[in-house]
Amino acid sequence: MNENTHLSTQFDTDLERLRSKVLEMGGLVESQINMTTKAYADNNIEAVLDVLENDSDVNAFEKSIDDDCIHIIAKRQPTASDLRLVMSISKMVTDLEHSRARCDCA
Q1: Virtual torsion, Cα 58, 83, 72, 22, nearest 10 deg
Q2: How many domains does the chain have?
């Protein structure tokens, strides 16, 4: 993410935790899209239903990451590139959730 070191090591820790969550969410979304694509190709309705049952995991990631972004903005009052980073992450997780949802409904 941001290569600069902040005066507050807790701020760096917060940003690293945010980064880790986004990567984990991205991996989950990628896995669900792959499983959905394979399930449709194989005409495997049970597999599609399994993916839909796990929908709450992606939703929970989106909410948790958005909450973390709000917390960072309120507590750390980031400026410039740090604020752009946090806002980009907030938008990114929404896009990840929507891309996964479009795949489930295809």
Answers
A1: 20
A2: 1
